[in-house]
């Protein structure tokens, strides 16, 4: 086969795949690209604030960069990268051959991708959104041009994909666990995925409702948020934060799960207090919905509402504290190996605790009147999201890379990445606590000299470049590994405890030749302790039924992308409405086609499986 034909078939393979492992790679690539874009936007922000009275970017452009940095990092980088880890690992961890709805899994990715693409088109079509990543209605209603419309429609498309993904993982974990895998034998990463997926199910609809209201106000003359027409801008804040605070836990809980796996593996110990970790995870998920208005202490809700939300917010510190101590006790007395993933895990604990402590400070309503809208809040937020989620994503990428790609990332370069990123992170954000306490407000594009902010801002900017350097080293590591990396074994780290380390690296298309029988917590470790080389099968070897690939998820998502573009311009151009309708017809046509096509999948025959398993054993 020629190189061109091979490239074509590879691209077509990924455009049509419904295999959870390939979809994980798609999420990883797309999320990684958006992460780099968000990082470049962050560097522009830090360059602008490095010195007083800087004119590196204009005030209007600064607002656009600031808005796109926050929106990109939360919705288009952190969220899909978390989904990449979930897709790569969870089905194998529970002994399943794929997720419950492979077609929907593919649809979820393409909706996210086209939503992100749509949002970033705004840079080229008249200006990006400029009302902050929270897009408060008082600012977003007044914003000229189509920037906010890109925000509203892009997030609706992308959010639909996330919602589909969350439902898919819920059903997968409830229905598709291997025989013997009770809920209290599930690995912690699977548990945190389960709770995060439940949060997605309940948190994304309020955001969708808010975005529909804002779309009606902006494009169709609605009056939900316009006070002059009887609307109320505070309603947007409630709807946004009813989504926005659980969103923090949607990101942080899987991060906790990643660190639980890593700390247990590289301490050579079962996770300390497994059942208390599970209950703490569920409790964090439950309490996450009772705290949204702590973002709104200064809007005038009154002392009773403020006090209730302050107490609820502080209560979350209890289950989080349980987790921190359990990780420390897991390491205590363990045979610790300081691999790259383990370095991130150890660095995460003090970093995240600092974010948590400043969270309790912000939760004190009276004190929050001082901290609110200052750089203290920026520092707190980044200690939670970067010190928690980004550290976990980098740790998880190093930890599961061999399982996803069959090659080991360089440990030497991995450790260089860790130290550059870790030092850069603390340089960037630690000083911002003090800038905030010294009175520096958020979202200002420049400041006057002589207020004592110059040194802090310069240090912060230098730190940002350290993080950028760490990211570049990671990219170099990935390129070198891809070209001449060391082939990974099935149990790549030698101390794997969960089922994903029992299958070859990368995992075969069908994951398991025979569905495994799970005989305890840390299913693979149980088998190892009995001296067995493989898993105990729960079924005889036979043909395996697999779902067919499909191009329709791509077409459905593309239709919504075209439709959003048309409806956005329907007030400006006569063709807008027509394009919008054509886009919807493409989407609904593809959905109808899906409903009438007999898609019975295909079989991988027993002989092929035996042959593949032999090859895997030799490798």
From TrEMBL:
It catalyses: 4 Fe(II)-[cytochrome c] + O2 + 8 H(+)(in) = 4 Fe(III)-[cytochrome c] + 2 H2O + 4 H(+)(out). Its cofactor is heme; Cu(2+). GO terms for cellular component: plasma membrane. GO terms for molecular function: cytochrome-c oxidase activity; heme binding; metal ion binding. The keyword Transit peptide does not apply. It is found in: Cell membrane. Its EC number is 7.1.1.9. InterPro entries: Cyt_c_oxase-like_su1_dom (IPR023616), Cyt_c_oxase-like_su1_sf (IPR036927), Cyt_C_Oxase_1 (IPR000883), Cyt_c_Oxase_su1_BS (IPR023615), Cyt_c_oxidase_su1_bac (IPR014241). Signal peptide: none annotated. It comes from the Bacteria. Pathway: Energy metabolism; oxidative phosphorylation. Pfam families: COX1. The chain crosses the membrane at residues 24-45, 65-90, 102-125, 150-176, 188-215, 235-259, 271-292, 304-329, 341-361, 381-401, 413-438, 458-480, 551-569, 575-597. Gene3D superfamilies: 1.10.287.70, Cytochrome c oxidase-like, subunit I domain. It is a multi-pass membrane protein. GO terms for biological process: electron transport coupled proton transport; oxidative phosphorylation; respiratory electron transport chain. It is an enzyme of class 7 (translocase). Keywords: Cell membrane, Copper, Electron transport, Heme, Iron, Membrane, Metal-binding, Respiratory chain, Translocase, Transmembrane, Transmembrane helix, Transport. Belongs to the heme-copper respiratory oxidase family. Cytochrome c oxidase is the component of the respiratory chain that catalyzes the reduction of oxygen to water. Subunits 1-3 form the functional core of the enzyme complex. Co I is the catalytic subunit of the enzyme. Electrons originating in cytochrome c are transferred via the copper A center of subunit 2 and heme a of subunit 1 to the bimetallic center formed by heme a3 and copper B. This cytochrome c oxidase shows proton pump activity across the membrane in addition to the electron transfer. Cytochrome c oxidase is the component of the respiratory chain that catalyzes the reduction of oxygen to water. Subunits 1-3 form the functional core of the enzyme complex. CO I is the catalytic subunit of the enzyme. Electrons originating in cytochrome c are transferred via the copper A center of subunit 2 and heme A of subunit 1 to the bimetallic center formed by heme A3 and copper B. This is Cytochrome c oxidase subunit 1. It comes from Paranoxybacillus vitaminiphilus.
């Amino acid at each position: 086969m020629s190189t061109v034909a091979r490239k074509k078939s590879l691209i077509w393979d990924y455009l049509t795949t419904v295999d959870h492992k390939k979809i994980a790679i798609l999420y990883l690539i797309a999320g990684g690209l958006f992460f780099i874009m968000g990082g470049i936007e962050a560097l522009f922000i830090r360059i602008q604030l490095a010195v007083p009275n800087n004119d590196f970017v204009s005030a209007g452009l600064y607002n656009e960069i600031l808005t796109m940095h926050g929106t990109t990092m939360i919705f288009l980088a952190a969220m899909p990268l978390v989904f990449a880890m979930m897709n790569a690992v969870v089905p194998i961890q529970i002994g399943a051959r794929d997720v419950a709805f492979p077609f929907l899994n593919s649809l979820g990715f393409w909706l996210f991708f086209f939503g992100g693409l749509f949002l970033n088109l705004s840079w080229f079509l008249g200006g990006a959104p400029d009302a902050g990543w929270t897009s408060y209605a008082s600012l977003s209603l007044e914003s000229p041009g189509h920037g906010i419309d890109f925000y509203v429609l892009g997030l609706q498309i992308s959010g639909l994909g996330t919602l589909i993904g969350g439902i898919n993982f819920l059903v997968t974990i409830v229905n598709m666990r291997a025989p013997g895998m009770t809920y209290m034998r599930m690995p912690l990463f699977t548990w945190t995925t389960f709770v995060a997926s439940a949060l997605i199910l309940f948190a994304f609809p309020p955001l969708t409702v808010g975005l529909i209201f804002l779309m009606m106000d902006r494009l169709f003359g609605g009056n939900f948020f316009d006070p002059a027409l009887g609307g109320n801008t505070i309603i947007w804040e409630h709807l946004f934060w009813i989504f926005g605070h659980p969103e923090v836990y949607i990101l942080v809980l899987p991060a906790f799960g990643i660190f639980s796996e890593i700390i247990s593996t590289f301490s050579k110990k079962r996770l300390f207090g497994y059942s208390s970790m599970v209950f703490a995870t569920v409790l964090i998920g439950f309490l996450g919905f009772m705290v949204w208005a702590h973002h709104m202490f200064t809007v005038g809700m009154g002392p009773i509402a403020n006090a209730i939300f302050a107490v609820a917010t502080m209560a979350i510190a209890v289950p989080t504290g349980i987790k921190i101590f359990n990780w420390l006790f897991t390491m205590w007395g363990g045979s610790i190996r300081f691999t790259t993933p383990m370095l991130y895990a150890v660095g995460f604990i003090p970093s995240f605790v600092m974010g948590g402590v400043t969270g309790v400070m912000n939760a004190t309503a009276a004190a929050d009147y001082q901290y609110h809208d200052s750089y203290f809040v920026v520092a707190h937020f980044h200690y939670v999201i970067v010190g928690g989620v980004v550290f976990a994503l980098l740790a998880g990428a190093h930890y599961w890379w061999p399982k996803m790609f069959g090659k080991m990332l360089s440990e030497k370069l991995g450790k260089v990445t860790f130290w550059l990123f870790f030092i850069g992170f603390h340089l960037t954000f630690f000083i911002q606590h003090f800038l905030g306490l010294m009175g520096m407000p958020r979202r200002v594009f420049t400041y006057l000299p002589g207020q004592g902010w110059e040194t802090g801002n310069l240090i912060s900017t230098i730190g940002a470049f350290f993080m950028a350097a760490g990211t570049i080293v990671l990219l170099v590591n990935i390129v070198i590994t891809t070209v001449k990396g060391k082939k990974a074994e099935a149990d790549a780290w030698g101390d794997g405890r969960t089922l994903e380390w029992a299958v070859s690296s990368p995992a075969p298309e069908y994951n398991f030749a025979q569905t495994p029988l799970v005989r305890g917590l840390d299913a693979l470790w149980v088998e190892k302790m009995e001296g067995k080389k493989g898993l105990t099968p729960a079924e005889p070897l036979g043909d395996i039924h697999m779902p067919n690939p499909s191009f329709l998820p791509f077409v459905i998502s593309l239709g919504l992308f075209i439709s959003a573009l048309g409806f956005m311009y329907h007030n400006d151009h006569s063709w807008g409405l027509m394009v919008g309708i054509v886009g919807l017809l493409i989407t609904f046509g593809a959905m109808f086609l899906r409903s009438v096509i007999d898609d019975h999948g295909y079989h991988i025959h027993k002989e092929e499986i035996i042959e593949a398993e032999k090859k895997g054993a030799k490798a």
